Amino acid sequence: MEQVPMVGGVSLSPECLEGISAREILERAVAEYGDRLALSVSFGGAEGMVLLDMLSRVTDEVRVLTIDTGFLFRETVEFREEVERRYRLPVEVLRPALSVEEQVRRYGEGLRGCQPDICCQIRKVEPFERAMQDYDAWMTGIRREQTPTRSRIPIFSWGERFGAAKVSPLAAWTAEDVDEYVRENDVPLNPLLSMGYKSIGCEPQTRPVGEGEDPRAGRWSGSEKTECGLHWAGGRS
Ligand code: SF4
């Protein structure tokens, strides 16, 4: 039977979290897990930055985990460094066991970002899996509105893959909610977001999107892949 954490007599179960504010969800997660909670941020999208900003107003003890695949845009790396200087939250950069050169030597040129499932497994999923051994829960900025595959994500769920609970305080937020928070709180954003990019991952598989295009259409464009594998095994729901 699934174990549902209680915080001050209040349940963290999915039903109880619907309809309450993202800030309150975040506060309950911090109260429940303390430093066994981590926030996962890519430093690409606005959602991760909203959560990072919100978290910084609640505590400075929860660690921010971010994956550097070795394929990130220079702008993303520089932006991450800027955020580290501006906020007091500890940021831990997770890196793959293999450098890009070692990966290519071992698996061939085809794995220079061209076989996304295997490359994402080595460069994103495995480093995250290793890091999560030190945590009981992680928070992520994914929203239901973003893609059909994300349309039914719960605010709180138990994840066997990483052996940890997953909390998505922004699950019910709209793009307008995100914009409003960014505006009102002067949240810094990756500069590529104002250059036509709407969802930013690794440089080889991210392109700007046109007017009216799905914001995530620029990721793994032309392939069936829609996710990196952190939220769904193999990158598919
Ligand atoms: S997004 Fe592309 S380059 Fe980045 S880890 Fe996945 S497959 Fe590799």
Q: How many separate domains make up the residues?
A: 1
- CATH T-level topology: Rossmann fold
Walk across the major sheet and give the strand order: 5-4-3-6-8-7
Give the bound compounds.
Answer: iron/sulfur cluster
* Rg on CA atoms, Å: 17 Å
Percentage of residues in helical conformation = 25-40%
Largest β sheet strand count, sense and barrel closure: 6 strands, mixed
Outline the fold blueprint.
Blueprint: E1 6-7, E2 10-11, H1 14-17, H2 22-33, E3 37-40, H3 46-56, E4 63-67, H4 74-86, E5 91-94, H5 100-107, H6 116-132, E6 137-139, E7 156-159, E8 164-167, H7 175-185
Parallel strand pairs: 3-4, 3-6, 4-5, 6-8
Antiparallel strand pairs: 1-2, 7-8
Helix pairs in contact: 3-7
Bound molecules: iron/sulfur cluster.
Iron/sulfur cluster binds at residues 69, 71, 113, 116, 119-120, 123-124, 201-202, 204-205, 228.
Short description:
By secondary structure, the protein is of the alpha/beta class. It has helices at residues 14-17, 22-33, 46-56, 74-86, 100-107, 116-132, 175-185; strands at 6-7, 10-11, 37-40, 63-67, 91-94, 137-139, 156-159, 164-167. Helix 3 (46-56) crosses helix 7 (175-185).
